[in-house]
Each structure stands twice: as structure tokens, then as C-alpha cells.
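Our consortium's second objective concerns turning raw sequence data into structural hypotheses that experimental partners can test. To show how far this objective has progressed, the report includes one record in full. It was chosen at random from the queue rather than selected for favorable results. The single chain below, 328 residues long, was entered without modification.
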Amino acid sequence: MIKTIRGGATGVLARSTPGAGKMNGTNKGRAARIAAKAVALFCAAAVVLLARPATAAELAILRNGFSIRHEHRLVMGTNTRLFLAADDSSFTDVPTAEITGYEKDLSLPLPLPAPLPKPADSHASITIPAQTESAKSPSAKFAPALPLNQVVNTASATYHLDPDLVNSVIHAESGFNSRAVSPKGARGLMQLMPGTANQLGVNNAFDPEANVTGGSRYLRELLERYNFDLVKALAAYNAGPQRVEQYQGVPPFRETRAYVARIVHDYNRKKTAQEIALKKIAQDAEAKQTELKQRREAKQKPVSTKAPSLAHRAPKPAASVIATESPR
């Protein structure tokens, strides 16, 4: 841009009258100043953009105990639109009355959810994915496995789920059998169908860590899809989202209804047991504090070690005097 200005100025001034050298120098100085200002403006803009802090993601806390991670939000009448990505390409609308508050999200951002897989036909042929090289290698075969509770806790923290809920789903799906295979071909702890596993990036559905991570991600996607309605999300996990949308709720299948009821009952049982345990801990702590308080009061109370004074002693009975007359 600067070379073009100089070239154009030179071409014009070559045909000018005497004093052109002075004008040429003036135009060159002006062009230099414009260029310097442009460079300074560009540098200032770059510094501002680089120094601008990244938008801190937040968690919208819902009344049902779940949370939704979002980049920013917009109140639209009675609903609040939560934008899940910085480019506003993904969002979900939640009733404002269902949001109890907001908190800063200090965890790592979640990966953008992939499109939900198409439902697999129960009569269609199932393509079993081949094992990866890492699964065939001896080092992978003898690699130490992580404890299941650690796997569940990590996946639950990544996708903002309650570990008790994930454990209840695993219990209902496979009974904690990592090699379980259903008649329809679902595999592993959280019973992922091959197509669903491929969509979630799970290469080996029999690997507990990969299976639980993929299943937790899928469960989180379903919760967001149904505005954190746990019953609908569980029904979709079992029967497929298309069935939930077809019947506008839990499908009238005995298996699906029993599946949802079993998980909800197991999850509520755990929460009830936790509440009872917490109450007992609180009561024991209160009783201990009361006992310690009574001991301190007993130590602070003065104890008299002096003998009782004579004034408080019981008077001795007066000796009876019998007068006898002397014999005459």
C-alpha cells in the first residue's frame, strides 16, 4: 500500500512545475506518517485482542440438581438461552424459573457433542468394529486397569454428572460386567451399540474406561436434549431418542418402563442412604459437642475442700443431770 502511494506521487510530480522536489518530499513525509499511524493502530488492536481475557464459562444450576455449562446466556421472555459454544452455533433454551443460580466453571471445557447416532434397527445386521492395534498389542493387554470407581468419578466430573447416577445406569445395563453383550449387540459396562460407540469415538467397547467415558458423554447429550428430564433421558438411552419423540415421553414398552423405574429407584435409594448417614454424622457430632461442653463446665465448677465449720455442726444432746437428795 505504501509503495503504491509513493509510485503514484512520483508519476504526478514528474510533470509538475519547479518546486516539485519540495512537494515530493512533503507527500513522502505524509505517506510515511500515514503508514506509521496504520502500523501503530494495527499493533494496538493486536495488543488489545491478545490481552483480552477469554470468556469464562459458567454453570447454570437447575432446581433438579443438574448443571449446564455455557459460554454466555440471553434472557428471552420466560426462557433463558444458554449458548454452549463461543460461536453461538449450539444453544439450549431453559425456563428461567428452573435456574437457581450461576457458578464459574473451573473445569476443562467439554468437547462439542457429535450428532446423535441414528437408531439401530433390531433386525438389521450389526457390523462389529475391528480391534485397534493398541488393543492387540501385548502392552495394552497387560496394562494395569484403573479401579472402576476412579473411572466413573473421572467420567462423571468431565461431563458434570452424579457418579451415583452413572453407577446406577451401569448396574441396570450390565451388572458391572465389562464383557457383557446383549442379544441386540450392545457391549460393555454401559451397553453401547456399535454405531453409537463409533459416533462417540469408542474403539473398544470392552475397555471399561473408554466405555464409561463414551456412555457418560451420551447420557449427558440426552439430558441436554430433553432439558435435563432424567426420565426421558433414561428412556432414550434404552429405547432410542426416536421412540421418546414418537410417544412424547417414555415409550409404552415394558422393558423400557422397568428399566427407567429400576434406575430411578436405585438412584433414590442411594441418595436416601446418604441423607440418613449425613444426619447420623451430624447428630453424633452434636452429641459429642454437648458432652465436651458438659465436661468443661464440670471442670470449671469450684469444689470445696474445707471441713465444715463448727457453726454448722449438729448440737450435742444436753447431758441429763439427776439430782439426788443426800440422806439425812
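The partners drew two points from this record. The longest helix spans residues 254-300. Residues 1-23, 46-55, 108-142, 321-328 have pLDDT under 50 and may be disordered. Both points have been shared with the crystallography group to help prioritize constructs.
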